[in-house]
């Protein structure tokens, strides 16, 4: 059960990170003069998305250790 939860969380984080960098590419293509500021926001979005993935993995390991028989 815990391994399945970790896999689902990892897939969600991968989709989220893809969306963050896809939005970065679109914003730089529209307005190249804001590339540095947009990159900073993209790194922040990447870090927050990755933090959610690591929290979900931690919860999955906790669930698997609690319900171990």
Structural class: mainly alpha
- Sequence stretches where pLDDT stays below 50 over 5 or more residues: none
Summarize model confidence as the mean pLDDT: 89
Number of helices: 2
Main location: mitochondrion
Protein name: ATP synthase subunit 9, mitochondrial
Function: This protein is one of the chains of the nonenzymatic membrane component (F0) of mitochondrial ATPase.
GO molecular function, one term: lipid binding
Describe what you observe in this structure.
This protein is mostly helical and 69 residues long. It has a domain at 1-13 and 34-68. Helix content is 88%, strand content 0%. The longest helix has 32 residues, at 35-66. The mean pLDDT is 89.
Task: Offer a quick outline of the entry.
With 69 residues, the chain is mainly α. 88% of the residues lie in helices and 0% in strands.
From the structure above, extract its key features.
single chain; 69 residues; mainly alpha; 2 helices; 88% helix; 0% strand; nucleotide-binding
């Amino acid at each position: 059960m815990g391994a399945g939860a970790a896999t689902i969380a990892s897939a969600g984080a991968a989709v989220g990170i893809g969306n963050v960098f896809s939005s970065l590419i679109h914003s730089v293509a529209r307005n190249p003069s804001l590339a540095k500021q947009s990159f900073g926001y993209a790194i922040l979005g990447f870090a927050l998305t990755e933090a959610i993935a690591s929290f979900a993995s931690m919860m999955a390991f906790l669930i698997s250790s609690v319900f171990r028989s």
